[in-house]
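re: that chain from earlier
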Amino acid sequence: MNEILKISNLKVKYGNIRALKGIDMIVERGKIVTLIGANGAGKSTTMNTIAGVIKAGGGRIVFDGQDITNKPSDLIVRKRIILSPEGRQVFPYMTVTENLKLGAITVKDKGKNGESLQMAYELFPILKEREHQMAGTLSGGEQQMLAIGRSLMSKPELLMLDEPSLGLAPMVVREIFRLIRRINEMGTTILLVEQNAKMALSISDYGYVLETGTIMMEGEAAQLLKNPKVKEVFLGG
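^ sequence. v structure.
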């Protein structure tokens, strides 16, 4: 198994609340792995703990053979583990181009930033059309494309996408998922947290089902799509 990320017995507490109760996960290099579950299941907590934003209370996170548990988030970014957070979080009073360039702030070889910018504009042509526009004036879908484009500027080894379809119209959602697939085909490993379980599993290689801080089920994404319990709980029967 060519694993890029291995999580072992990961625990996180908020005060007396056990948000993660000892989860185990593996993300294979070059794959799309999705994490599904209801609100409060611990999906975003998992992402934020990997990213170093939240401290683990136990367990290990190993990336590319190195233990990164509770390492500072800036060091994790330098290892090219990039989180595109829930809610997009673009800088509204900066232009599209300025937002994108911020994504490359940790890149040592600044000469490659032009290539990364060009790649972002090729993936998201609408952003090229809006390059001088303030990010806050973009539609929700365009802001999501900008958030993902900004994440790609540092050429991530592992791209973590937290709820990329949240609040978007169905047609825009389909386009976002098509682009996620394309980013993966270009060689980027993706860990996806998503409430739209059907869409997420349909583009993923492997999936984990999280319930109140515990992984209740895992398997090939195509098999999870057919699983009666997954269908009942997440796919509307």
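Residues 101 and 132 are 13 Å apart (CA to CA).
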